[in-house]
Amino acid sequence: MGQPEQRAEGAGPFVTRQTWHRPGGETVVWESRTARRRGTVAVRPPGAAPSRQAPADSVSVGRLRRLNAVAATAFVVGGALFAVGAGIAQFGSGDALRCASVYFAGGLFFNTGGYVSLLQVINAPVHTEGRLVTPRWRWWTYEPMRVDWLSAFVLFAGTLVFAVNLLDSFLRGLSVQQINRLIWVPDVIGCVLFLVSGHLGFAEICHRGRPCARPRSLGWWIVAVNQLGSVLFMVSALTAFTRPATGSLVNADIANWGTLTGALCFSVAGVLQLRERP
């Protein structure tokens, strides 16, 4: 038998889709996100027969389901807590300690969701000419030439930078310069990392370097809603800059509403992610 013909697609140096045309006429298509989240590859028999999904083994499927449930739930809860914190700031007493406490609790869930998302990538089934093979369990790996790993790693890094911002928000007696350096700067950096992660997520789904519209794809909606949340977080961060001359925020209302609506986007994306399971 001859070797299968292979075609690779992706964005820049990243391979996000591979197609094998086997000598018998069968076509196998591996897509990065589908294999990682659904645990399947698409197989089209010879002729006009429709494609079927070839799943990974039960070990991979069970593993992916558990990781997906934990990550999605963490983002749902984390987003809800961030929304509550913003609501307290906008409509409640505005007590700084109470807001910081709620935000910090939400940040812990975001940290969890970010790391478990990275575990999903690290422990995803590996493809070998269209077959999915279960790798050994790993808690960490370094694979920067995988766009899914890079996206998840940047997202996790963003949650850790947000943790610095949230911890510093408990400090009292800071000058305006210290507030901007210790609280505002990490906030902006975290937002930038979230936006970069979302762009890489689009590259994985669209198989190219620029975003695309795929409204029939659940994975696309998850990335799109998360990216909208990241944009709203960035708007919130920019308007939360403290003016040195007055000691007040650029616009407290926009900052609170941006956080509230952005957080709800992450919660909605988490609910959608619960449906994107093997």
What does this structure look like?
With about 280 residues, the chain is an alpha+beta fold. The chain has two domains: about 5-55, no CATH class; about 60-275. The protein has seven helices and seven strands; from the N terminus they run βββαββααββαααα. The protein has helices at about 30-40, 60-90, 95-120, 145-170, 175-205, 220-240, 250-275, and strands spanning about 5-10, 15-20, 25-30, 40-45, 50-55, 125-130, 130-135. The strands form two sheets. A five-stranded antiparallel beta sheet has the order 1-2-3-4-5. Strands 6-7 form a two-stranded antiparallel sheet. Strand 2 (about 15-20) and strand 3 form a beta hairpin. Helix 3 (about 95-120) runs antiparallel to helix 4 and helix 4 (about 145-170) packs antiparallel against helix 5 (about 175-205). The longest helix is centred in the first third of the chain and has 34 residues, at about 60-90. The chain starts with a strand and ends with a helix.
With helices defined by DSSP (H or I, 4 residues minimum), what is the helix count? 7
Assess the beta-strand content as a share of residues.
Answer: 5-15%
**Given the C-alpha coordinates, what overall shape results?**
elongated
Series of H and E elements: EEEHEEHHEEHHHH
- Helix share bin: 55-70%
Head-to-tail CA distance between termini: 33 Å
Please give the number of β-strands.
Answer: 7
Major beta sheet summary: 5 strands, antiparallel
Strand order of the largest sheet: 1-2-3-4-5
Structural class: alpha+beta
Radius of gyration (Å): 21 Å
What is the mean pLDDT? 89
